[in-house]
Structure formats: structure tokens, C-alpha cells
């Protein structure tokens, strides 16, 4: 497809070297409000789509087709505002990545984000993540880069190696993925200001940082991130968390309950509101049948 105005706009914003702040959008009203309040970009949050669109936790349960259709709708609601879109691991082997990129490309997103977790993945700020070998993810990147119809459709490479392998490995992977052709690099879940600074200093590529309420990464200010040279700051949970709090308060007022009894304190608590504990119990049951108890 020919390039689009939102894709050109995202390229222009990156060239200006001013931090792009992208709130997490997940449905029509969040996209419309993002546009109407003057934001320059939106971030299609996989966690937000899973929870708001399907009542599911962010543990790899939503499909590529479901995400691509949500992306298409939100692109329409955003108009000329570019959409940066989460595509998890690409939803399978390189051939699956090819189909995923084609669907996101046709949906009109301005950037597609892919990560090096094993599938099914987990939210980046949950424990027990596992990553594939870096060479495996490079094949994912190659499939994405070869498939996009427009070089203005940016490819973001995310590494989740910080938690299972350490920061040194995460930075090594980040630079390796940049050399493989990724347009933007995303090191997920740095822990502490020192790690944020080190990533900015040692990764040779435009950088995206993920600021999650109650997550592992300190909520650095836009001014600080700008000074360090970060290109994009996504805030995937801000809108959804506040909307969830509002819904809990309204529901408890209707029933006479106390919203404080349900309020999440972090990502795990939030995902338990949409059944994460039950889904993980199922995963344990079927992954380890010998541990199942039969009455």
C-alpha cells in the first residue's frame, strides 16, 4: 500500500527529536478522546485490548486477527494521529508474522511492535517471563521487515530479556536487533533510574520506554526522558486504569459496596480482575498434568 499521512507524521515527529508521548488506547472512545485532547500519537495496548475488549488478562490469549481488527477501528477513530500498535510476538513462526504484519499494514497502523518472548507471552511487568533465542527473534524481525509494504510503517523491536537474563543481555539484544534493521528499540521493564540511563547511553537506536502504573519501571518525567534522548514514551495503562477505577466506584455505589476492596495495586492485581488467576491455573493444569488432583 502507499504510505499514509499518519505514517509520514510519525516519521516527522521522530525526526524532530522531541519525546513522543503516546497514551494507551484500546477502544473507540479512548482513541477519540486522545485525538480530541491534542495528543500526537496513540499506543494500541495489547493488555488494554485483552481486558477491555475481551475480558481477558494479557497472557497471550487474544489472537492476531482480533488485534488487527481492533487496530483498524482505532486507526479510523484517530484520523491523522499515528497509531503505534502492539503485536506481541507476531503470533507464531515467521510465516505467522508475515500474516500478522500484512493485517496490521492493511489496518493502517504507523508502527508495529514485536517482542522476543516465548509464546504465549505475558505482560512485560509480570513475573516468570521467558525469551526466545536472539537468533530466533531476528527471523521474526526479518519476516516483518520484508513483509511491510511501506518503509514508513516502522518496526519496533522489544526485548524482554531484562527480567530473565539481566540488563547486560537486554542491551546486547537491543543493539543486535537494531543492527538487524529494527527502526525503534524497546527494552522492557528497566528497574531503576540507573538502568533507564544506561539503556539510553548504550543502545545505538531510537528508543521507546514503557511507563506502567504500578510496574517495575520508575515513572520518569517527560523532561527527563527527553534529556536522556528517548524517542517515545508509551503510557499503556493510564486511561484504562482510571476508567476501571471509575467503573468500580460506580458499580459499588449502585450495590452499596466499597470500591477500595477491589482496586488493583499493580499489573497482577489488575489482570486478576479479568481472571488471570483462573487462566494461570488452567495453564498449570494442562502444562503439568501430573500435578493435577483428581477426586
Automatic annotation (TrEMBL):
Q: Which UniProt keywords apply?
A: Lyase
According to the UniProt entry, its GO molecular function terms are: 2,3-dimethylmalate lyase activity
List, alphabetically, the Gene3D superfamilies matched: Phosphoenolpyruvate-binding domains (3.20.20.60)
Q: Give the main EC class.
A: lyase
Superkingdom of the organism of origin:
Bacteria
E.C. number(s) listed in UniProt: 4.1.3.32
Q: Name one Pfam family in it.
A: PEP_mutase
The answer, when asked if ATP-binding is one of the entry's keywords, is no
- Would I find Repeat among this entry's keywords? no
InterPro entries, per this entry? ICL/PEPM, Isocitrate_lyase_ph_CS, Pyrv/PenolPyrv_kinase-like_dom, Pyrv_kinase-like_dom_sf
Descriptive protein name = 2,3-dimethylmalate lyase
Amino acid at each position: 500500500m502507499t504510505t499514509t499521512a499518519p505514517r509520514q507524521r510519525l516519521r516527522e515527529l521522530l525526526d524532530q527529536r522531541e519525546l513522543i508521548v503516546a497514551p494507551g488506547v484500546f477502544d473507540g472512545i479512548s482513541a477519540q478522546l486522545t485525538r480530541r485532547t491534542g495528543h500526537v500519537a496513540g499506543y494500541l495496548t495489547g493488555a488494554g485490548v485483552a481486558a477491555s475488549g475481551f475480558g481477558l488478562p494479557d497472557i497471550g490469549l487474544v489472537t492476531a486477527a482480533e488485534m488487527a481488527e481492533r487496530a483498524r477501528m482505532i486507526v479510523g477513530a484517530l484520523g491523522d494521529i499515528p497509531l503505534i500498535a502492539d503485536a506481541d510476538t507476531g503470533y507464531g513462526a515467521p510465516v505467522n508474522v508475515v500474516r500478522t504484519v500484512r493485517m496490521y499494514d492493511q489496518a493502517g497502523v504507523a508502527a508495529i511492535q514485536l517482542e522476543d518472548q516465548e509464546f504465549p507471552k505475558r505482560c512485560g511487568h509480570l513475573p516468570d517471563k521467558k525469551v526466545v533465542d536472539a537468533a530466533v527473534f531476528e527471523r521474526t524481525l526479518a519476516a516483518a521487515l520484508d513483509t511491510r509494504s511501506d518503509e514508513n510503517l516502522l518496526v519496533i523491536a522489544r526485548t524482554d530479556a531484562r527480567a530473565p537474563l539481566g540488563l547486560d543481555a537486554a542491551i546486547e539484544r537491543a543493539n543486535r536487533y537494531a543492527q538487524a534493521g529494527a527502526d525503534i528499540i524497546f527494552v522492557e521493564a528497566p528497574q531503576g533510574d540507573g538502568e533507564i540511563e544506561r539503556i539510553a547511553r548504550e543502545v545505538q537506536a531510537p528508543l521507546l520506554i514503557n511507563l506502567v502504573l504500578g510496574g517495575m519501571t520508575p515513572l520518569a518525567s517527560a523532561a527527563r526522558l527527553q534529556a536522556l534522548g528517548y524517542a517515545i514514551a508509551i503510557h499503556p495503562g493510564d486511561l484504562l486504569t482510571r476508567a476501571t477505577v471509575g467503573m468500580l466506584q460506580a458499580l459499588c455505589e449502585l450495590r452499596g459496596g466499597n470500591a477500595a476492596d477491589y482496586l488493583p495495586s499493580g499489573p497482577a492485581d489488575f489482570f486478576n480482575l479479568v481472571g488471570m488467576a483462573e487462566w494461570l491455573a488452567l495453564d498449570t493444569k494442562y502444562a503439568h498434568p501430573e500435578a493435577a488432583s483428581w477426586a
